[in-house]
Amino acid sequence: MSPNAGGDATSSSGPADTVRRVTGTGVPVRGNDVDTDEIIPARFLKVVTFDGLGQFAFFDERFDSATPEESRDGGAVGADEPLDHPFNEERFQGASVLAVNANFGCGSSREHAPQALMRWGIDAVVGESFAEIFAGNCLALGIPTVTASQEDIEALQDYVDEHPDAEIEVDVAAEEVRYGETTIEASVDDAQRRALVDGVWDTTALMAANADSVEATAASLPYTDD
Amino acid sequence: MSDGTLYDHVWDRHAVTELPTGQTQLFVGLHLVHEVTSPQAFGMLAERGLDVAYPERTHATVDHIVPTADQSRPYSDDAAEEMMAELEANVGEAGIDFDDPTTGRQGIVHVVGPEQGLTQPGMTIVCGDSHTATHGAFGALAFGIGTSQIRDVLATGCVAMEKKQVRRIEVTGELGDGVTPKDVILTVIRKLGTDGGVGYVYEYGGEAVEAMDMAGRMSICNMSIEGGARAGYVNPDGTTYEYLRGRDAVPQGDAFDELRAYWESVASDPNAEYDDVVTVDGNALEPVVTWGTTPGQGVGISEEIPAPEDLPADKRETARSAQKHMGVEPGDTMAGYPIDVAFLGSCTNARLPDLREAAAVVRGREVHDDVRAMVVPGSQRVKAAAEAEGLDEVFTEAGFDWRGAGCSMCLGMNEDQLVGDERCASSSNRNFVGRQGSKDGRTVLMSPPMVAAAAVEGEVTDVRELEAVREVRA
């Protein structure tokens, strides 16, 4: 686990804080259409809590394991042969800003995917585009999914490769990503920006306050008479 | 923005209020629950001391981890047993209906909802599963959600959503023999891309869709997410209403007629406005199979596999690595690609009409010596109905394994998995690397009759070239 995997505090309970900006070192994961089966293979979903999922992030791309059984138990991770992957590289340990390409997080709705990234240490994702369910799952955890042009993202990924110790600042409120001498224009979905900047992404609390209106809506629907 | 579409109508009927984020608080008419994505949500609820707000609008089944061979308890896989026990405890405490395997109703969540009549037109339906769009086949607004959103729905009966745009996908003409709804949706995804639907809800219509039975419409809506669209739907019509009549959760007599009036009222207006319209010529389609590792990497059975350099710049690198993984060459066709495993199952294609179509191909033939083949019915009821008409014998006599209901080898969360670099002809929905349980495994997506043809020939085969195969979709 990386040292700044403390983002867990926002995962499940308590009043949400605001996330105006995220600052930290970066890690690039390249490629379009990175799906949630890649981010966390299905065999690691056989759990009843999200605890400890960080070690399984991108597991099959990070480790060459002989059989699923061998790699299923957390204790066996050390026995697997490490492969080349940014999440395995010493210089990217401790990174909190993930830089990705297009349609990141497509496929399954598993919240285990952003949970695994968060528990590995990721606090913000910057990419060309994101799959909708993945972005919604990130928001529920207080993780911004910020988009920028292909050119800007590729430049950011190259910069992070060359400067693994450099701070990347993801400014959600200003819709900018800053690094070195560079500022790139980024875009944050309106609802996401408001939720993070105003600290209102705890939708359970928000919606529970409207219980009476919910009752009225329910009663107005013809199919709820049964 | 769209106006007068089913999406607009259903949205408006379920909108509770606007939230400070600008999102809409949307009432959920049906919340479907399964064992993989729900335990953490129930945990969060308990942490906050909250109860399930609408247990009567919630329904649970077990599907992802359930074994399809020996289903006796406790399950031999401890992790699976723990998840099952957790689900039983959670739904028991909350008073949620649960199709456990002893009820005879258990099955894949997107099969049991429709077959019990829980899924109805004009409803909002959510589930912690990306294939929830399946239920859109009934003219419901149905979409997948994550675990934190499951917590929202359990606690409040609502979900926070932003309104999307609506793209009408018009499938004209008539599908030829051997061409199925699966071929239509694989074509749509190939054409519009795996992210073409991000920000959109898809409305499927046109003569070819109107002619489909409910199973076919479900296959199409099911894979909307593979094209990036979180929801997809078909306007309800006579086919929909006749399917629903007499189902467990559907009222009868006058109550049915009253509901039907509501169902008719939510369909898209004749002059509805769409944000985009795309037309697909149904007459021109042939069976489609995938050559790569995303569902958008499909090709007609007689067409050549594309060269990466002929694809748009942003698709080339993915295509190169996909072709390497699959062991295919540009310029070849997929016909003749050797097959080790045939999987007939999944929420996309494991309903009775799917099994009938595959059985019509298999009847009187034998599974190729080099192929292990299995049928995993979508639910216990599908299995029983298939057995009542003797389909199980058709499959087993040919050499197929006839299994219990579940998600099975679609995602390899139970013991049904590819081994090593096996190549699988699969009626499921995702050909991602590692999806079927082995990171070196290779998945070729196709329709049920095409899976049957591949199973008997031992290689990807144009089902139309096998003799005496007839359209049997009821």
TrEMBL record, chain A:
Residue ranges of domain Aconitase A/isopropylmalate dehydratase small subunit swivel in the record: 19-150
EC top class, as a word: lyase
UniProt keyword list: Amino-acid biosynthesis, Branched-chain amino acid biosynthesis, Leucine biosynthesis, Lyase
Catalysed reactions listed for this entry: (2R,3S)-3-isopropylmalate = (2S)-2-isopropylmalate
Family: Belongs to the LeuD family. LeuD type 1 subfamily. Belongs to the LeuD family. LeuD type 2 subfamily.
EC numbers: 4.2.1.33
Gene Ontology CC, one term: 3-isopropylmalate dehydratase complex
Molecular function GO labels: 3-isopropylmalate dehydratase activity
Pathway(s) it belongs to: Amino-acid biosynthesis; L-leucine biosynthesis; L-leucine from 3-methyl-2-oxobutanoate: step 2/4
Biased composition (Low complexity): 21-30
Pfam families, sorted: Aconitase_C
Heme found in the keyword field: no
Ranges of Polar residues composition bias in the record: 1-15
Keyword Transmembrane assigned: no
A biological-process GO annotation: L-leucine biosynthetic process
Protein's recorded name: 3-isopropylmalate dehydratase
Segments of this protein annotated with the region Disordered: 1-30
Complexes and interactors: Heterodimer of LeuC and LeuD.
Function: Catalyzes the isomerization between 2-isopropylmalate and 3-isopropylmalate, via the formation of 2-isopropylmaleate.
UniProtKB/TrEMBL annotation, chain B:
Domain Aconitase/3-isopropylmalate dehydratase large subunit alpha/beta/alpha: 8-458
Enzyme class: lyase
GO MF term set: 3-isopropylmalate dehydratase activity; 4 iron, 4 sulfur cluster binding; metal ion binding
Enzyme Commission code: 4.2.1.33
Cofactor note: Binds 1 [4Fe-4S] cluster per subunit.
One of the GO biological process terms: L-leucine biosynthetic process
Cofactor(s) the protein requires to work: [4Fe-4S] cluster
Pathway: Amino-acid biosynthesis; L-leucine biosynthesis; L-leucine from 3-methyl-2-oxobutanoate: step 2/4
Keywords linked to the UniProt accession: 4Fe-4S, Amino-acid biosynthesis, Branched-chain amino acid biosynthesis, Iron, Iron-sulfur, Leucine biosynthesis, Lyase, Metal-binding
Catalysis: reaction(s): (2R,3S)-3-isopropylmalate = (2S)-2-isopropylmalate
Disordered, as annotated region: 295-331
NCBIfam families referenced in this protein's UniProt entry, alphabetically: leuC, PRK05478.1, PRK12466.1
Function field: Catalyzes the isomerization between 2-isopropylmalate and 3-isopropylmalate, via the formation of 2-isopropylmaleate.
Family per record: Belongs to the aconitase/IPM isomerase family. LeuC type 1 subfamily.
Protein name in the entry: 3-isopropylmalate dehydratase large subunit
